[in-house]
């Protein structure tokens, strides 16, 4: 059984990807220092898959501690690297913490691929690397604009670090650029555990609907879009997860000829913020309490994916539509309300 190391395995996309990897016959080990997560989702992974996944509570910014994980797991075939800080607004307030954490951890991991001869590296990237694109939908070849935030810059720099390292021949890599991951696993045994007040749209919607926060704002309704609100490509987290399994399959089958290959992970459908709210209201039956507020600095106006490459190259078939995304997100929020063992209130400090 091929063993995959997943960094950030206790996190939202990491946990969903571990489920998909296990369901597709892979053995998985996680490294997550729980600075932005808790081990709670490991229980959900075990509930879905029957497998207990070991997590090494290690800070990847410590090279020695990272090496120790590889010394104990000599049979790792591939690495999927999720672990990073990812709050756009926070990155503007704390840029050095973002550059140090997101880049030092990546460099340490890449040094380990050389030290332990691990040839396959999948990187969690983001549509944020496109900045505010001149034309949409964006393809993988769309020129990158300056990132709108230090978070986005760490993704652009991360891709460059990987490209330069892959050219030395030590690894081959796949960069997966997520659009807006939302929703929860259909079993509702795992989902998103936003830390403190949610910055992202869908957790803000569900927490407002359940009364955890009194109301929410739509950030800007004067944009040049069909209804004035920003346009995004919302993609179900389980579809994102399966794309990672397909990327690992693709690499282990030797199909990736280039040192680095890039794939957009979006549905290919643009949805506005107001349309997303309407879809939520339709599936939940809840009239959402929101106000129309000012623009949020740093927001991209409109972006959605051309996903042809992932569909044809990886054989990626999208399973979930916008209503499924909202339905599972809402079911997860209801689960959080009744299941007191799951909590999101933990205060997390930057290192
Ligand atoms: C979406 C839209 C907001 C909250 C970021 C990262 C991206 C990815 C996903 C990691 C925007 C609007 C939001 C609210 C609102 N991260 N909004 N009211 O900024 O598109 O992308 O998260 O993979 O890399 O950049 O996501 O959900 O924060 O915002 O109106 O209370 O919803 O203004 O237009 P974003 P988001």
Briefly summarize what is shown.
The protein has helices at residues 12-23, 40-49, 63-72, 88-93, 95-115, 150-166, 201-209, 237-252, 273-284, 308-313, 322-338; strands at 3-7, 27-31, 55-56, 76-81, 120-126, 172-178, 180-182, 216-219, 231-232, 234-236, 260-265, 271-272, 290-293. By secondary structure, the protein is an alpha/beta fold. It has one domain: NAD(P)-binding Rossmann-like Domain (Rossmann fold, 3-Layer(aba) Sandwich).
Describe this structure as you would to a colleague:
The chain is 39% helix and 16% strand. The chain is built from 11 helices and 13 strands. Strand 2, helix 2 and strand 3 form a beta-alpha-beta unit. It is globular. The chain has 351 residues and is of the alpha/beta class. The chain has one domain (3-338): 3-Layer(aba) Sandwich (Rossmann fold). Helix 3 runs parallel beside helix 5 and helix 5 (95-115) packs parallel to helix 6 (150-166). The model has no long low-confidence stretch (mean pLDDT 95). The longest helix has 21 residues, at 95-115. The site of UDP-4-deoxy-4-formamido-beta-L-arabinopyranose has 19 residues, from helix 7 and strand 8.
- In quaternary terms, these chains amount to single chain
What gyration radius follows from the Cα positions, in whole Å? 19 Å
What CATH architecture would you give? 3-Layer(aba) Sandwich
Termini separation: 36 Å
Net shape: globular
Unreliable sequence segments: none
The CATH class, by name, is: Alpha Beta
Q: What is the fourth-level CATH superfamily?
A: NAD(P)-binding Rossmann-like Domain
Q: Kindly estimate the percentage of residues that lie in beta strands according to DSSP.
A: 15-25%
Quote the average pLDDT.
95
How many helices? 11
Tell me the total number of β-strands. Answer: 13
Instruction: Give, in spatial order, the strands making up the sheet with the most strands.
Output: 3-2-1-4-5-6-11
Ligands bound to this protein structure: UDP-4-deoxy-4-formamido-beta-L-arabinopyranose
Number of structural units classed as domains: 1
**Helix and strand element order:** EHEHEHEHHEHEEHEEEHEEHEHH
CATH fold type: Rossmann fold
Give the class from helix and strand content and strand pairing. Answer: alpha/beta
**How does the major sheet shape up?**
7 strands, parallel
